[in-house]
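Hi V.,

You were right to ask for the full record rather than a summary. Here it is.
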Amino acid sequence: MVSPELSQFQTSHMAKPSARNKATLWLTDSFLFLSGALVALLLVWTFGSFSTPNPNPDFTLFGATQTQSECVEGVNLRHDSAETTFYDEPEMSYSIEKPVKNWDEKRKEWLKHHPSFAAGARERVVMVSGSQPSPCKNPIGDHLLLRFFKNKVDYCRIHGYDIFYNNVFLHPKMRSYWAKLPIVRAAMLAHPEAEWIWWVDSDALFTDMEFKLPLERYKNHNLVAHGWFKMIYNAKSWTGLNAGVFLIRNCQWSMDLIDVWAGMGPQTPEYYKWGQILRSTFKDKLFPESDDQTGLIYLIYKEREKWADKIYLEGEYYFEGYWHEIVGTLDNITERYMEIEREDATLRRRHAEKVSEQYGALREKYLKEAGNGRGSWRRPFITHFTGCQPCSGDHNQMYSGESCWDGMQKALNFADNQVLRKFGYVHPNLLDSSVTSVPFDYPAEEDGW
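Predicted structure:
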């Protein structure tokens, strides 16, 4: 069927043209020819674009242009300077047995040649954790380690930290608790853009996903761990700090500390001698082997001016908290936080996960009376399942296996609720991993659901 407009157009061409009509028809034909040529050109260009794509496209959204090479908050991930850096030195080694010298200067030079990383370098943190290369003996061990790792990934994603998880022994003789030192040292070399390397044991998890490290508090120190100087100097206890979670500055001081610290490890001929020295110095140390925690305490105790002045022992909040005194409080903490949200509609507001830190800051005014540490109803920052051994299952006989596994599930679900809430779900029961969708404006009503 022919449309009336097309029919009229065809009829006018079949009529005998006058002189005026000839001119009109010539203009019309010229216009049509040019229009057709333009359409053809556009088609060729369009199909050509599909067949030969631009190798460096720009991605534009809402008027902002961002290239592939500048896709992470202004950091250029596709540029490595051609200038010589410490990476080009044949003698530079990642091995813990070969000391690194002039690291501050080398790191500064690297940042100079990579200016996009220089901005914000003082606040940049890389988290490091790890576990053994072989499968766990405990039947649920690998599942538990996966959940512990997921928890760390969640925390790092929320706060913009990088994370490295290692499951190999970088030194064949440095295993168990000594395995962390070669990893931390190698991470310092692999990440010169980071000011801090944050070691977190595989059996430690974040139970306050909003809390962010108060780095300004540690600006004059190079290592942060959970502990108390009075327990080291007065009580001479090997539990004066916990070395399962520590924050260490990426600097020459830290390189030197790790060299001395590792000198007490099983890769040295002095290992058994150090076991005797540590046990005789700290009378409450029951086992004869030299361990990383007592070794660090020994350096603080014996070489105070050299090391202790740059070490911050954090005891005002759960930089790392003992699980046995924490898990029993989690239900009450959940209820107290829900009470706060019932009072403040802003805290109930749905929001993107990327802006979680803002809501953590808004919540602080309600937590002034909550306290910190034991007896507090503030969310514990990190809960550490020391003695539970989730991978081997060889838990400390002080606890039953059931109390360890139930405690882990409870703490993991407690933390997971803070993440899943941004996705519209929560675990109603901390001992049950099933989830329920969260209604709008939750928890405005007392019943919640």
